[in-house]
Amino acid sequence: MQITPVRIAIELRLSGGSEQMVAMRERLIAICQHYLDSGFGDGNAEQRLCSPDDFTYWQQLSEVLLAHQLTAAGIEFTHQAVGPDFCITHGGRRIWIEVIAPTPANVPAAWLEATEGVRDFPHEAILLRWTAAIKQKAEVLLGNPPRANGYLSSGVVSQNDCYVIAINGRLLRGFGGSLHALIGVSQFPFAAEATFAIGPLQVRINRETLEASAPEHQQRYLIHKPVGQPVPADTFLDPRFAPISAIWAVDIDESVVVGRPATMVVVHNPSATNPLPVGFLPAQDEYVAHVVDEQTYRLDRVEGRTARPAEISMTVG
């Protein structure tokens, strides 16, 4: 057995002695070492995997685990010295994937910690972390003038390339990681709420007849923060973000290496300059918007390449 910095760090982090823990730890060490030996990470990837800081570790581990998912799906990729985390060539076009694991800033501790009993679902606080992650990685692509140029203006990503933001919601799980990290109050993924202005379900009551309407989703274009200006939640309804092809939203952690399936969805940008092919990335569900008229999309949930049978739809004005 070779004693490497990654082995030492992961043995400290996952120190349990059960048979399942030992199997998971050994498999994770092997996958992380393969990732490093293959040159799939930046120069500081080993340092970040060995970091005692949870947020640094999870950002890097998210890249490792998504690289493993791509490999398991038979999707070949490379890592460039400059540019997004993964580069895939498909159908004569490059598909870039940039990975982020949002930190749980301002998400209530009662939601995040292992606590018994019913707690409020802090859906707006969690959604703000999704919108912040999308904004951050959109600026990496598009730039944030006058402070910085993006991958597009520098030519790292060309006008003909797909650009996918991969978001691992693992750190936003509730009750010590036992609750889901992907689905918002609307019952759509947070990634769809953050890009299509989808709000909670509502019922309209006729004040004269007291009859209730069929349930419908609110349109929520802005999310209010405790302090500061409201945050837009309509990325894919804004033509400025047409260079973003899709959001690959995942809930993935170390247990995936011993057979626990990762929850993954893809939310497509209907206005994308370079659309991502439906069914290309590993995901159980994909959300695809179809034009109804000049002012309306219909957002359909369709089966992904690792699908479970189901289909729902909604209308987005």
What this model shows, in words?
- The strands form three sheets. The chain has an eight-stranded mixed beta sheet with strand order 1-2-3-8-9-10-11-12. Strands 4-5 form a two-stranded antiparallel sheet. Strands 6-7 form a two-stranded antiparallel sheet.
- It is built from eight helices and twelve strands.
- β10 (285-293) and β11 form a beta hairpin.
- It is 27% helix and 21% strand.
End-to-end separation in angstroms reads 59 Å
Runs with pLDDT <50, length 5+? 309-315
Overall morphology: globular
The strand order across the widest sheet is 1-2-3-8-9-10-11-12
Q: Which percent band covers the strand fraction?
A: 15-25%
Largest sheet: 8 strands, mixed
Number of extended strands: 12
Order of helices and strands: HHHHEEHHHEHEEEEEEEEE
How is the topology of this model organized?
Elements: H1 5-13, H2 19-37, H3 45-49, H4 54-72, E1 86-90, E2 93-100, H5 109-112, H6 123-142, H7 151-154, E3 162-168, H8 190-196, E4 198-202, E5 216-219, E6 222-223, E7 231-232, E8 246-251, E9 263-268, E10 285-293, E11 296-303, E12 313-316
Parallel strand pairs: 2-3, 3-8, 9-10
Antiparallel strand pairs: 1-2, 4-5, 6-7, 8-9, 10-11, 11-12
